[in-house]
Fold each of these.
Amino acid sequence: MSIRTLLNEIVHCPHARFCLQNPDTEHPCREIVLSQGSINLDQYQVPEPWSGKIEQAPILFLSSNPSISFSEDYPICSWSDDDVDDYFNYRFGGGRKEWIVNGKKSLQKDGTYSSSVNFWAAIRQRAMELLRRDVHPGTDYALTEIVHCKSCEEIGVKQAQNKCVEAYLLRILELAGAKVVVVLGSPARKAIQSQFNISAEISVSEPIMIGSRERFFAFLPHPNAFAPKSFAKCFQEHELEKLRAFLH
């Protein structure tokens, strides 16, 4: 499967569309899909497959689900496939618009830029810590989630998680170029540990063959957690050096 085919499948997720068209359904994705409110399909903010050049980036950050902003210039269902493809693959640079500046500030509908997004700023710091240099967001690292629909405060993630993981997680990881997948927060940690039979006690997995290459999974608290969040504070030195060596 090509990267464009998978991107379009996630963006036009049949589960999300079913819930929008059948709001009284008992579908597990119902809560997260309808959390955007009563809107028509054309105005729906599409599920987020990933952000950045996922086939190239050596580091992939994996979290629970993307948060939503109603002021951001973000794809809705009425956008063309070319515009959606440009947005997600070149969100951090090189696209038709400067969707995000400095890896931290998003383009708004009124043409201005948001204040620094704490999550993105923290991700950039973790990538710099791993690579021990300044980084190029979207090229040195990409982002994805275990649940792709957007919501506030992880609304509906627990209910939708199994369905979304089953549909997309493994295929995204197979296409990704990442040598190291950094798993952020408890929902993503539990999903990865279950999927790949990884002990809950460890911070770094053994290398696991996914697709055509081996990957390490490294587990960190979510950047919003009230806990130490850096590699230096969460990992033993030999664990961190193992990841760095694998990235070079």
Note: The chain has nine helices and seven strands.
Amino acid sequence: MRVIILHFLDRESKNNDAIVRALADSASRAGHIVEIVDGTRSTDSLRLTPYEYVVVFSPSYGLFKGRIHSRVAEVLSSCGNVTGKKGAAFVTKSLFSAPSANQALMTAMEKEGMVVNDFNIIENSEQASAAGSHLG
């Protein structure tokens, strides 16, 4: 299955890079063809149509009321028809806001017509690897 990991994580952090890489490597070992795309960079020509599974990974912001990266909704709405596509919503661990940030991410994906069949709060590479092994 063709999988895209669309992340909005800060590339400056080595931990975030390791988390995304662990997620992709684990999904590849499970037999998927994986492509990683940084959603914080230019995504004007990005189309999600060729992919069968879409993983959206955002940091969680806020202390109690969880928020996701501001570009998530913008990028998802500009990437072509995603109605009916299966996907996963992952957010980074934060103090108290991660569950509500995960809910906000799922809502943004479902607003575009995606079917979210997996969601999780990911803190480290081991959790990312476990999540990547059962995508699809």
Note: The chain has four helices and five strands.
